[in-house]
């Protein structure tokens, strides 16, 4: 087959990385929240979806895309703070299933509110003008916007890494993920740390939703699909591990992209097959700590 | 706190004998309620739905309430049961009873496949893995258009009469349809009651209460979990098969993850880990949906809000709260 040249495969690999970048951002927020709060945020997809809709709304008001890149994570993060403070905090210490169930109910409310405000049908989301077109990346022309998605994700990862590794607050977060009780004994207000971590996680989800919007448009149900796929990413990468989320997110993106090239009908199922293999060979995932899940 | 653990608590049973009586004859009581139920309902189609979703929640509750594992993939078990039943009728022309059996087997097999993979994980992971695997089942059934009709759903499951030992029942008649389905649901209640009262039922709850201790007592925890999940699949498969017969169509939405979420809500609303909770939850949920849908299309908003309120203020559910009151 002449169509399957090296260049085509390389391009598809890059497309997979751009898709994977969205998974990475989504899964990192999920993982960060779980690692700290041991809360599986079933509303993460809803935060992602609301992020895209807030971006859509701000642009319709006359804002530009670059402003949205700053404003959307801020607004979604603030909303996340409120959710943690009002809804999730009363549930700490009441069993690990309750926050999960609550966030599941919350996702229903958020999706329906968006349906009321914006209607049931989806909207297209224009790629900002500067980022339209394609650039030659050596193996062929590649959409500029997808390149931007990869770059923006790398920037967020770098900022997050610097924050977690180089600041004293990051140190508290890392310590809190390992042993919240000791951190509390040392005089740190752990509930405030949890609040902020939830805010950061949801802010990243909103950012991911905004980045994904020009690639696939916005509809109220967009969060549900990616939530299941992000679970696959966290299972493969290992729950609560940021490095695992990055690696597994990119891997899942590339696998989806490659199977849609070679066997399109298997594209949706392939990542679940990948998850099944990982579960059989290494149930805790690539970087998962076995003890975290008991 | 569940009924079965209460019934072990012999020293206190004398103080609330009505409760003891209800526990001992729980399946018969459920049967009695189911038999008179359509007479008090405004229309039978709703009563049939309540039966089917009650059965679905009954199967789910075995895993969620009694085993203590939160599954977010039960739509796959219900859906496989419905599709197996529908395919047996549409593509193979099997009689209705063989098709129902096919549905139960479908639920069992799907539960075995999901269970083998998901049981390897623990705690909160279980919810995520079951949800992901049921999403995988959704795509598989969605793409097998020749067998399942894909997006349009599987159509043409026409069962007009129920023939049994020379008896010919008109399945189109809503009342007869209700009682045919009720017969299966009542049978399922008796089987469930038997399972929970058996030594194996005690092991299921032992695993939930203290995994380490159950293991130290010589029980195979992993096998218990897998078996319980597979049994749950049988109940849900039966519910799916009955649903297929009732609707004459299997919509692809039956496999959607919202169907998994629905049963979690029903079980929590009714009272998880209680025998009557799932049926009560299904009744309250579906009647409420019926009433609310009359004056607003945004039923999901109400569902979400009720669910949040349940988690925050009524984690024991309706029946669980009533039991707690009765005990006081």
What would you say this structure looks like, in words?
The complex is a heterodimer of chains A (294) and B (328). Chain A has helices at 6-37, 44-60, 65-88, 97-118, 144-166, 168-178, 180-185, 190-216, 222-237, 242-262, 267-281; strands at residues 134-136, 141-143. Chain A has a single domain, classed as ABC transporter involved in vitamin B12 uptake, BtuC (Orthogonal Bundle), CATH 1.10.3470. In chain A, 73% of the residues lie in helices and 2% in strands. Chain A is globular. The longest helix of chain A has 32 residues, at 6-37. In chain A, helix 2 crosses helix 8 (190-216) and helix 9 packs parallel to helix 11 (267-281). By secondary structure, chain B is mostly helical. Chain B contains 17 helices and four strands. In chain B, the strands form two sheets. Chain B has a two-stranded antiparallel sheet with strand order 1-4. In chain B, a hairpin with a 2-residue loop joins strand 2 and strand 3. The longest helix of chain B is centred in the last third of the chain and has 27 residues, at 221-247. The relative contact order of chain B is 0.19. The chains are: A mainly alpha (294), B mainly alpha (328).
Question: Descriptors for this entry?
Answer:
heterodimer; A: mainly alpha; two-stranded antiparallel ribbon; 11 helices; globular; B: 328 residues; mainly alpha; two-stranded antiparallel sheet; 17 helices; disordered N terminus
